[in-house]
Amino acid sequence: MSHAPSPAGPSNRARPAAESGPAAGPGTPPADQREPLSTALVTGASSGIGAAVARRLAADGGWRLVLNGRDLTRLEQVAAGMSAATVAADLTWPGADRRVTEAALGHLGHVDLVVAGAGVGWAGDFTGMPRARIDELVGTDLLATLHLVRGLLPHMVAAGSGRIVLLGSVAGSVGVRGEAVYSAAKAAVAAFADALRYELRGTGVGVTHVVPGVVDTPFFDRRGAPYRRSWPRPVPPERVADAVLTAVRRGTDEVYVPGWLRLPARVRGAAPGLYRRLAAHLG
């Protein structure tokens, strides 16, 4: 593990406005009296959406960051010029969640925002998916997120404020052919976001579920199969990063990127038979 702060100091630019979260609990100051969010831990920050989120927060100003990823070289390239420390660790390693949590709290003092962006994929028939890849995918996309949030959440609840951002996928809302395990893991993330949000009501800590569609990142190269569909077209990771920051500022519970992706999820919920017929036809 590497925990090397960037030489750059904290930005002097204005901090983001305070979020609007759930109702305050006993002894918790109203939202407009709390300190604005200013410290963040971003996982999966060495590439893709996580890297874009880190850059977006740094550009926004006022944020002190701890960035986690598996590739130290890429992680330090992302952190260059930011007020950021890097923690290179695979979150599926035993004890990695504790090391990342301790590094974040040790460097920042407190963590206002957690963006759980670490994730991997795999494409192909489920029957041909190696057991090791199933374990890796579920371990990275689901279990690592649960363990990390579990480690940081008591500190955020004690502070009476903060936000947890969980990166999901439209595959978790509607299911995607050839991505059965990935769809299952992301569906579990969506359910976790809902359940945790209910549990945290009144604590001052909010939960945001960000649901991207196809994003133009190295994710598809690493999953073993490129993205070949002509529609929907991939969106840049910066668009997802913008949505994350907007959701954090507004205290939004769930956001789809792009927004129209909410429609198939609603059709599936309202008319599952119709949805399944359309999905079988359209692939």
Automatic annotation (TrEMBL):
<feature type="compositionally biased region" description="Low complexity">
    <location>
        <begin position="14"/>
        <end position="26"/>
    </location>
</feature>
<feature type="region of interest" description="Disordered">
    <location>
        <begin position="1"/>
        <end position="35"/>
    </location>
</feature>
<dbReference type="InterPro" id="IPR020904">
    <property type="entry name" value="Sc_DH/Rdtase_CS"/>
</dbReference>
<keyword id="KW-0560">Oxidoreductase</keyword>
<dbReference type="Pfam" id="PF00106">
    <property type="entry name" value="adh_short"/>
</dbReference>
<protein>
    <submittedName>
        <fullName>Short-chain dehydrogenase</fullName>
    </submittedName>
</protein>
<feature type="domain" description="Ketoreductase">
    <location>
        <begin position="38"/>
        <end position="218"/>
    </location>
</feature>
<dbReference type="InterPro" id="IPR036291">
    <property type="entry name" value="NAD(P)-bd_dom_sf"/>
</dbReference>
<dbReference type="InterPro" id="IPR057326">
    <property type="entry name" value="KR_dom"/>
</dbReference>
<dbReference type="GO" id="GO:0016020">
    <property type="term" value="C:membrane"/>
</dbReference>
<comment type="similarity">
    <text>Belongs to the short-chain dehydrogenases/reductases (SDR) family.</text>
</comment>
<dbReference type="InterPro" id="IPR002347">
    <property type="entry name" value="SDR_fam"/>
</dbReference>
<dbReference type="GO" id="GO:0016491">
    <property type="term" value="F:oxidoreductase activity"/>
</dbReference>
